[in-house]
Design brief:
By secondary structure, this protein is of the alpha+beta class. Strands 1, 3, 4, 6 and 7 form a five-stranded mixed beta sheet that branches. A two-stranded antiparallel sheet has the order 2-5. The longest helix is centred in the N-terminal third of the chain and has 59 residues.
Amino acid sequence: MKFLLFIIKSVLAVAISFALFAAVPVIYSRIGLGLAKSEETAAQAPLLMNVQTKKSERKNTPLFKPRQIAQASGSRDGTRSFDLKFSPDLKIGSGEGVAIEEKNLENIVFEEGEADINAVAVSKMPIPYPPRAKEEGIEGVVEMILLIDRKGIVSNIDFVKVPHALFKKPIEKVVKEWKFKPAMNKGIPVNMRVRQVIEFNLEK
């Protein structure tokens, strides 16, 4: 009886050992396969996240990006900017620039043809023949340079050519009464020298 129990126990032990020996590779393969699957899933996870992120970025990205106009001041990120603000010239229209220019032209004397508009006589009395020069029978051509100021007044008479001194005072008296429209330069009245030639002939 004892011998029979021993045989049965031995057979069971061998069977159990064989079963365990056969089950070890299966269990190991199962464990390895699970690890491989987990590693593959872990490796694919970042790719799936990147794909999902790109999809979300595509959804949130606008079709048209608005252009940004840089401003005048520099920014911290190093981008240079430009200011498109319009700064009107306050001198124009304020009269200040015109006043300065007019002051600068006050002492300048233009020759005929140098300014935009020459001085033009508006009241010019004829010069009579000087009585004493006529009595003396003196005739000839008087050439003079008139200085017409910014008000159109004859401020100076310079005789360039005169037949006799008897002509000067009578001519000066009449010419100083002449009135001119002053010369203009850039819309501002200016001084100008004007040449005048008068011929005195006893036969006329």
